[in-house]
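Quiz preparation item.
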């Protein structure tokens, strides 16, 4: 365990040192948003592809039990049957986990995924061939999906800081079904591994899209309390 702790701490420090200058270059106007995405992908993609555990290949450097605990918080936003989109689905583990957790609760939730890395999307399709036609390789920022989804999970760190509010608005207006929910995770900016860019750090919010039906008005559920629950992920 001590060896694992040392390797995780090294990954955190390396990830911060590599990714922070990319953010800073964008803030100074030295690179475009397209270049920001390309540079971040060049760092993150190899880390995910070379991951030695299933959960590391989907953005969590902890154990399987820690994956269940930290990612399981997303189920707080899923309050009924429907469709679930994982933005940044990587190798598809969260899609499979949400389907299983929902089934264990007596809910039928159909998982979908969108991934900016074509190579990671291809891995996800090969791992879950039954869902191959519902895993898209695309940048979710500006993406127009062929259908909308009741539940959407995203990380705010998938776009530069200045673009996050607009990104969430795009998801609410173009990706989430009327009355659906976006579960978004804001990452605390501290040294963190390149494979841990969507860890729930201090804020989680399920935000409802505006419904055209008067019977189901828009509502917001504050999940901030969940972030205060003990999270034992080695990456946290």
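Solution:
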């Amino acid at each position: 365990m001590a060896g694992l702790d040392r390797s995780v701490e090294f990954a955190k420090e390396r990830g911060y040192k590599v990714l922070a200058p990319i953010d800073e270059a964008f803030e100074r106007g030295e690179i475009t948003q397209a270049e920001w995405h390309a540079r971040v992908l060049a760092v993150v993609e190899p880390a995910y592809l070379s991951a030695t555990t299933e959960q590391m290949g989907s953005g969590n450097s902890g154990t399987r039990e820690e994956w269940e605990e930290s990612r399981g918080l997303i189920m707080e936003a899923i309050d009924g049957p429907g469709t679930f989109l994982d933005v940044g689905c990587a190798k598809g583990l969260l899609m499979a986990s949400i389907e299983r957790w929902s089934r264990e609760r007596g809910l039928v939730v159909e998982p979908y995924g969108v991934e900016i890395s074509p190579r990671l999307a291809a891995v996800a399709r090969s791992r879950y061939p039954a869902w191959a036609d519902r895993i898209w390789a695309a940048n979710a920022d500006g993406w127009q999906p062929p259908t909308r989804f009741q539940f959407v999970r995203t990380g705010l760190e998938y776009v530069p800081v200045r673009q996050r509010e607009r990104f969430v608005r795009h998801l609410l207006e173009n990706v989430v079904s009327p009355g659906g929910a976006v579960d978004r995770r804001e990452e605390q900016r501290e040294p963190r591994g390149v494979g841990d860019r969507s860890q729930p750090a201090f804020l989680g919010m399920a935000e409802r899209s505006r419904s055209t039906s008067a019977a189901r008005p828009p509502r917001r559920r504050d999940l901030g309390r969940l972030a205060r629950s003990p999270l034992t992920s080695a990456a946290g």
